[in-house]
Structure formats: C-alpha cells, structure tokens
Amino acid sequence: MSARPTGHARAILTMLVAICMFSLMDAGMKLLSDHYPPFQVAAMRGASSLPLVLIWALATTGWRSLLRIRWPMHLLRGVIGVGMLGTFVYALHRMPISSAYAISFVAPMLITALSVPILREHVGPRRWTAICIGFVGVLVALRPTSDGVVSIAGLAVLLAAFGYAISAITVRVLARTDSTQAMVVWVMFLLTLGAGAVAASGWVTIVRSDWMVIAGVGIAGSLGQYAITEAFRRGEASLIAPLEYTALIWSLLLDFTVWGVLPDATTWLGAAIIVASGLYLLRRERVHIEPEHP
C-alpha cells in the first residue's frame, strides 16, 4: 500500500532535480548564444552530453537496450528536439531567462491537457479551471512587455514549449516498451546530428575560453535529461508537469546574479498567477491519486 506514494514522491524529487539542472544548462546556452548561432549552440549541447549519457547507458544496460527500440517514435523526438532547442536558444539570446521561462510555462499546461486524449489520464474540472487561470497568468506576464507573445522571440518560446509538451508525452508512450537509457541516448544523438546539419553552413569556430561553458552545459544537460526522463517514467504527466514552475526561482536567481536583471511588477504578477495555478494543479492531483491508489 505504500509503494504507490513512494513512487510518486520519487518522481517529484527527480523532476525538481531536472529543473535545476536544465536551468543551469539554459544559463550556459544563453552565454554561448552571444557568440554562436542558435542551432550550433543546440548541436554543442547535444554533442557535449552524448559521451556522458552513452557511457552511462552502456554501463547499465548495454547495447541491446539501445537497439531494440521504436525507431519512428525516436525519430519524431529527434526532429522535435532540434526545433525545440534551436528556437529556445534563439529566444534566450534576445530576452532574460526569466522572461523566456514565463512564456514557456505554458508547456506544463499543454502536457496536462494532452495527457487526457493521448494518455487517457483523468483531469477533473477543477484542474481544467486551474489550467485556464494559468493561461491568464501567462498573458498577464507577456502583454505589457516588448518581449511579449507577438514578438519573434516570444513566438520562438511558444513553439519550443509546444515541442517540449509533445516530447514529454512521447516519453510516457515510449516508456511502455523502451528503456530510459535508449530514450536519453537517442534524443542526444539525433539532436547533435540534426542541429549540426542545420548549423553546418554557418558554423563558427569555437574559441578556447568557451570550452568550459560547453562542458558545463553537457554535464547539466545530461543530468537533467536523465532526471526528467525518469520523472515522466515514474509519475503521471498531469502530476509531474506543474513542477516545471520551480524553474522560475532558478531563472530569477540566474538573471539577477549573472546578468543583473529582474522582471517588472506586471511580470511578477503574471508569474504569481501561474505558480499559484501550478500548485493548485499539484494539490488536486494528490487528492485524485489517494482514492485511486489506496
């Protein structure tokens, strides 16, 4: 009777670790975007993580788990990953991390909504209401700023958020047949290959001083990719998705300490609405889980 709650608790903790790692990775990519094109940064992110995740995969499950996979789904994830990361790096170069995250907070809402028709998970009327309120918070955070939804950078983040939502749902589908190792290795490989091909014609020579940043992006990205894959593997998408909002804390700390910027009052208000909606979604999911898994 205690197995289910323990599994959900581990999924929550793993997701929190993933968000921290991805926030550090995004800060590194923002630094790199000042010197390199978006898809080159995406390719460097994939290439710097690939050796690490490959060593881990071979040490834990071996080659066979990497080859016995559902190839069409992995190719789909690869295409989505290239577009998602390329557009997000483009946006990071043109706005603070906290502003980009405020827009990207639409992704957990999309995951929760998509979990109903795709995964057949149950989302009750109160959680649908919280999702709608969260969308209002996104609009409040965006509308008064020059980096709003109508800007190219804002649109890029929205596209990345949609790609993230679809990718997260595919993890839940692939987890029924494929290993975590296969999912992590192949998304990194396809990201490196695809983004590298897109960036090849305009590739910029990497300077020596940037190698440490690239290594940091690779390490943080590897840990984050593993953690988020495990989180969606262990827990229901509608439970895990709201935890994405903890990225706001990390983005504010990074923006202030590294770039010396903070959101304005209206953005704070929008973020508060979004976080409150996310916390309510998490609370309602716990209420939903208890009677279903006694």
Plain-language structure description:
The structure is a single chain. The chain has 294 residues and is mainly alpha-helical. The protein has helices at residues 3-32, 38-60, 64-67, 71-94, 97-104, 106-114, 125-142, 152-174, 180-199, 211-234, 237-240, 247-259, 265-292. The N and C termini lie close together (6 Å). The model is unreliable at 1-5, 144-149 and 287-294 (pLDDT under 50).
Radius of gyration: 18 Å
Mean pLDDT: 83
Number of strands: 0
Distance between the termini: 6 Å
DSSP strand content: under 5%
Total helical elements: 13
Global shape: globular
Largest sheet: none
Give the SSE order as H and E letters. Answer: HHHHHHHHHHHHH
What structural category arises from helix and sheet content?
Answer: mainly alpha
Uncertain residue ranges: 1-5, 144-149, 287-294
Helix content: over 70%
Secondary structure elements and pairings:
Layout: H1 3-32, H2 38-60, H3 64-67, H4 71-94, H5 97-104, H6 106-114, H7 125-142, H8 152-174, H9 180-199, H10 211-234, H11 237-240, H12 247-259, H13 265-292
Short recap of the structure:
With 294 residues, the protein is mainly alpha-helical. The protein has 13 helices and no strands.
